[in-house]
Amino acid sequence: MNEFTTFNPGKNFWLREQSPEMNTIQTPNLLDRFCRYVRINTEAVENAGTYPSSPGQLELGRMLLQELTDLGLKDAKQSVHGIVTATIPATISNPAPTIALFAHLDTSPETTGKNVKPIVHAEYDGRDIVLPGDPTKILRSADNVELQRCVGKTVITTDGTTLLGADNKAGVAVIMEAAAYLLQQPEIPHGPIRICFTCDEEIGHGVDHVDLTALGAVVGYTLDGAGEGEIEAETFSADKADVTFTGINIHPSIGKGKMVNAIRMVGSFLDSLPRELAPEMTEGREGFIHPYTIEGGVGKVTVGFLLRDFVTAKLEEQAELLREKARMIERQFPKSKVEVVVRPQYRNMADGMKSEPRAVAYAVEAMTAAGLTPKIGSIRGGTDGSQLTAKGLPTPNLSTAEHHIHSPLEWTCLEEMQSAVRVLVELAKRWGRS
């Protein structure tokens, strides 16, 4: 029995590879794989003190390990850190470069990943989608150009009470389906392909325990993108800042002249930040300062900030702005203290791509051969590829149908995931010819 709700059960899902050979790629398990994976709660936990930060990531990893083993991959393993690796053996005798495919097991902590109930809308009719678990959550067609492009296709949503987990379980499912297909079609020429499923990408630790020497790849690809045909070889550079406001707590009945309310300090601090640097006011190549977590009370409050820009040097300008506003608050609230702690997260991958131009060039060729129109762009965010590239493994990001990520309105499209499977097959061929 399928572990998802469908509005058109029994539909046979398949796709045709748009290569000269015109082979038919059957993907009968892709939808089932995806829905099975998203039902496991792999929500990452900030400051958990463990790696991975949540037990569900280990659970999903064990499931994938068994599936990889069942496919016949004898070197499949799960490390003590929960990272799952395996190798699809080469089908050609001449040496070919080893490539690596990456996806992450965790989901964002911004929206709960517990009790995900995927809903399949087969032959989507183009109308607004009211999510039944919370009817106030509505995917409005007029506001979603990408959704409008999926009319007649199969759309998968949440029930409105959780995120879906397409970020990044769509990528996990695509890699698994591509692996199954390549193993069933040994006549397809390709070199060694390494599979690597990481943990805790959403909280900036996805590649902390990835052993690049053991992987032995010359290039990597993260399957962690949005609509069809997208290739992303540039990301934000990113830092995280924690700003701690320390006041003086005392019973409010005797607070005059004695209390320093850290909550009021936070309000003044946030109000002083330039509105034009808010993410809701920026687009394209504009950076931002984003307050995204808050914890505390009258005596002490800590606010977490995301600092983002395509130009790495501008992150220090953003950090200095926070420090400047912190000093202003200390002057405004005598006896208070404001501390700003900044930690690097990841860096723009664009510079690292110059060392291996085939990484993007072959992705363009693969998407064209798969019948897609390649679109090279930048990510207003980051992937594991950002850090992998910084560590010396050029790793662009490829689309896998992740839409409205991190929210109850998250959705994906089966046919777009199927396209991503096609792309991986074509990509394997191209690296096999190198």
Care to describe what's here?
With 434 residues, the chain is an alpha/beta fold. It has two domains: 316 residues, 3-Layer(aba) Sandwich (Aminopeptidase); 110 residues, Alpha-Beta Plaits. It contains eleven helices and 20 strands. Strand 2 and strand 3 form a beta hairpin. Helix 1 runs antiparallel to helix 4, helix 6 packs across helix 7 and helix 9 crosses helix 11. The longest helix is centred in the C-terminal third of the chain and has 20 residues. It is globular and about 80 Å long. The two termini are 44 Å apart. The N terminus is likely disordered.
Helix and strand topology:
Elements: E1 5-6, E2 14-16, E3 24-26, H1 30-38, H2 55-70, E4 77-78, E5 84-88, E6 99-104, E7 119-121, E8 129-130, E9 138-139, H3 145-148, E10 155-157, H4 166-184, E11 193-198, H5 212-215, E12 219-225, E13 230-235, E14 237-246, H6 262-272, E15 288-296, E16 300-309, H7 313-332, E17 337-346, H8 350-353, H9 358-369, E18 375-379, H10 384-390, E19 397-399, E20 411-413, H11 414-432
Parallel strand pairs: 1-7, 6-11, 6-12, 12-19, 13-18
Antiparallel strand pairs: 2-3, 4-5, 5-11, 7-10, 8-9, 10-20, 13-19, 14-16, 14-17, 15-16
